Amino acid sequence: MTLALSRWFFLLLMCLSLTGCSLPMFNMAAANEAELFAQGLDQYIASGELTTLKRLPQQYPQGEWRIKAAAIIDMVKQQRQLQAQLEKKDQQLALCQSDKDLANCKKEQDALVQDNQMLEETLKRLKEVLIDTEKRTE
């Protein structure tokens, strides 16, 4: 009787696994990972800090949210680099003395401002996609 019950339980478990269903206790790590991702995203939005998002790949190296966190971290790094370049160009613009230098510097500044705006828009879209993805997985 116990052997038959064990076989049925194993068969049921295999069917659940193959059909994509999961029992809540088996999906606890994924829920914790998604919660950590959400906390990291909230922290970044509130303060601009990435510490919680950076912890995600360390705590869940095989997790599905690790990739999303890494994408956000890369986008933020690129945005910060472009912001630093823009500030450097602003300083150079302030030092320009002749009209010709001023025109060249102004063109470079406008191009960097446009690049920065595009990155900010991309980051905004990425956040929206990640939020939509999170809502779908709930």
Fold and architecture overview:
This protein is mainly alpha-helical and 138 residues long. Helix content is 85%, strand content 0%. α3 (51-59) runs antiparallel to α4. The chain is elongated and about 75 Å long. 8% of the residues are buried. The mean pLDDT is 77.
How are the SSEs placed, and which strands pair?
Blueprint: H1 2-19, H2 28-47, H3 51-59, H4 65-95, H5 99-137
Helix pairs in contact: 2-3, 3-4, 4-5
Determine the structural class based on helices, strands and strand pairing. Answer: mainly alpha
Shape: elongated
The rounded distance between the terminal residues' Cα atoms is 39 Å
Biggest sheet character: none
**Beta-strand content:** under 5%
| Poorly predicted sequence stretches spanning 5 or more consecutive residues | none
Quantity of strands, as a count: 0
Number of helices: 5
- Helix and strand run: HHHHH
Indicate the radius of gyration in whole angstroms.
24 Å
- Report the helical percentage: over 70%
Q: Summarize model confidence as the mean pLDDT.
A: 77
Brief sketch in words of this structure:
The protein has helices at residues 2-19, 28-47, 51-59, 65-95, 99-137.
Which properties best describe this structure?
single chain; 138 residues; mainly alpha; 5 helices; 0% strand
